[in-house]
Amino acid sequence: MALSDDELERSTLRAVAWRILPLILLGYLASYMDRVNISFAAPTMNAQLGFTASVYGFGGGLFFISYAILEIPSNLILARVGARRWLARIMITWGLVAMSMALVRTDWQFYLVRFLLGAAEAGFFPGVIYYLGLWFPQAYRGRAISRFYIAAPLASTVMGAVAGSLLGLDGHFGLHGWQWLLIAEGAPAVVLAFVFLRFLPDKPADAAWLKPEQKAWLDARIAADNAGIAAPEHSNLRALLRPAVIALVLVNFLYLGPYYAFTLSAPTILKAATGLDAAHVGYLVAAGGLTGALGMAAAGWSSDRLRERYLHLAIPLVAVAALFGLIASGPAPIIVMAAFLAMMASYFAVSAAFWLAPGEIVHPRAVALTVAAINGLGQVGSFLFPWLWGVAKDKTGGFHLGLSLLPVAFLAAAGIVMALRQARRRT
């Protein structure tokens, strides 16, 4: 008996979601952990290796320079050779480089390994955004992206939960606790790479677990979505010069950089502001990951349900600015903790909606390049802000100046989003 259209739609998307999204989520979880786990290693690593805040901030941000340089080439290769092989290659190399961070002894070694880590990971996130566009119609893409991107806040939960135990291994087999943390959190990426090679299909036509009628429905639905988007540019490079794309680059620059500047020092800041010990700060960061996951899931669901992207960006951007302003004012510890948890929910609500915009602005043939450019160019801010944050810390002796300036960047990003919304409504 043939399925009705509604039953075919539900069964197809259910099969795709259960087969694709858990693998992607685990991959991005490992990616995000290896990107920011030095925030937990920093207090003891910096003290033992003699790194100043400027050295740490510069090295932490160097990741994003090589990441930005190689984003576009990496995504172009992925589109040519297929997601399965290229994402697995990315994961093997970044896992090995992340583990090698435990061997760092000098500031220049720290700079080199962080630069290589960014080069190794480049292309993973925009590659996944492009890949999901091959499997999920626009009406479902917000939920799909939020369900894999939820790994970013959950990475904070995992790191916060296990960091204390890993740091507690200090002295075992002649390794410091921060070395154990970096090795243990780099290894899963290498293992997952082989899982990707075995179980991740490149496109719906390669999925043995989809029935022929499900493949036909999915191809027709995505083709219909693509037909409603602007015709492809004569050259895909021209898509990068569209004002809407440039606006998204600026928004990404302004909301990613300040967040990473804060995140790379978050355990240290929260410990000073709340008086908690390292283990309890880890639990607070873990709780922030959970509120971030809830904010992301809610924003993804709401954005799809209302088919609205821009207010789902602007409103939480303003909320993040207000909450960072509250943290900078130095209120009672309980208020700092509440503001941190609310900030995480608001920040990841932005992330849930942001990556839906490129697919509604440019033609699918240009999405791989456009997403890579938006992510790569925006990541320049993720180098500049942590570096300047470290310089400010060394000059002033504290984090107050940096915290006080973070709201300005988020408010500027919100203003650009609202201008983009007005331009889109006019056209």
Task: Characterise the protein shown here.
- It is a single chain.
- By secondary structure, the chain is mainly alpha-helical.
- The protein has one domain (10-426): MFS general substrate transporter like domains (Growth Hormone, Chain: A), CATH 1.20.1250.
- It has helices at residues 5-36, 38-49, 53-81, 83-100, 107-121, 124-133, 138-149, 151-167, 177-199, 212-227, 236-239, 243-263, 266-274, 278-306, 311-328, 333-354, 364-378, 380-396, 400-426.
- The longest helix has 32 residues, at 5-36.
Short account of what is shown:
This protein is an all-alpha fold and 427 residues long. Helix content is 81%, strand content 0%. The longest helix is centred in the N-terminal third of the chain and has 32 residues.
Give the CA-based shape: globular
CATH topology name, in short, is Growth Hormone, Chain: A
Poorly predicted runs of 5 or more residues: none
Number of domains: 1
Annotation, overall tally of beta strands: 0
What structural category do the secondary elements indicate? mainly alpha
**CATH architectural name:** Up-down Bundle
Q: What is the fourth-level CATH superfamily? A: MFS general substrate transporter like domains
The main β sheet shows up as:
none
Could you list some keywords that capture this structure?
427 residues, mainly alpha, 81% helix
